[in-house]
Amino acid sequence: MFYVYCQLENERLNKIINRQIIQWFYSIDHQEVKISKFPNAFCYGDTVIQFIDEHHSEQLAISLARCYTVYVYEKEREILALLQNSHEIYTIIDEKENEQVIKSTVALVVEKLLCQYVLVGDFNRRKLAIKQANHVYLVDFNDIFYFEHVMHLRKIKVVCRQRNYLYRTSLAAVSDKLPSSFFRCHHGVIVNLKQIMSVNRQEQQIYFPQNKKVHTSVRGYYRLMKRLKEEP
Q1: Where is the signal peptide (predicted)?
Q2: Domain co-membership, 105 together with 160
Q3: What pTM was computed for the model?
């Protein structure tokens, strides 16, 4: 789960940040995002982002969760030294800035956190953050059939059960975020072993539900078949 906590003394700033966060999360599954509604205890792998006044910087009692703090300050004071000495501080916001600058800063913070947001633990709970246009979508790994590099677009196509996504990244970057059930069977293809229905040796095609398919190389075919035999 992704939690956001924002309770600042400056009411104007508080409203701007909350409005920006709600707008940013509009297209995201709200079962995965809670804004200023903290549970009594966090689960391992939960991510928390806190917007806290620099002059009232008491830490919330956060256990097990990954916690990132955004300090809001009125005067610069020794905030830069504070930034250098704490790995939990993510960025700072000057409350005297105009609304557009504040909204932009908040958007960058949330975007960076969501793009590295992957739940740990039970495979069925894990999600991949995919940025497309001005939205970030949280996609269940179980719903992903395969990833394919679209060379002429310089993007990765993610083929899923409900829809497809295109976003600018590399297969190498994606593979670092995937569980062991994903396998690279071609220099431009990563498949979800749990979703494969059949493999055609002659055509070198891998078939998935809903009549979706992707091509593999000759070498990739043999490596894939060996890997499938090892699957429980």
Answers
A1: none
A2: no
A3: 0.58
By residue range, what is the domain housing residue 173? 125-230
Percent of the chain with pLDDT over 90: 25
Mean pLDDT calculated for residue range 66-95:
63
| CATH of residue 148 | 2.40.50.1020
Q: What is the 3-state secondary structure (H, E, C) of the chain?
A: CEEEEECCCCHHHHHHHHHHHHHHHHHCCCCCEEECCCCCCCCCCCEEEEEEEHHHCCCCCCCCCEEEEEEEECCCCCHHHHHHHCCCEEEEEECCCCHHHHHHHHHHHHHHHHHCCCCCCCHHHCEEEEEECCEEEEEEHHHEEEEEEECCCCEEEEEECCCEEEECCCHHHHHCCCCCCEEEEECCEEEEHHHCCEEECCCCEEEEHHHEEEECCHHHHHHHHHHHHHCC
Residue 119, pLDDT > 50, answer no
**Domain count along the chain:** 2
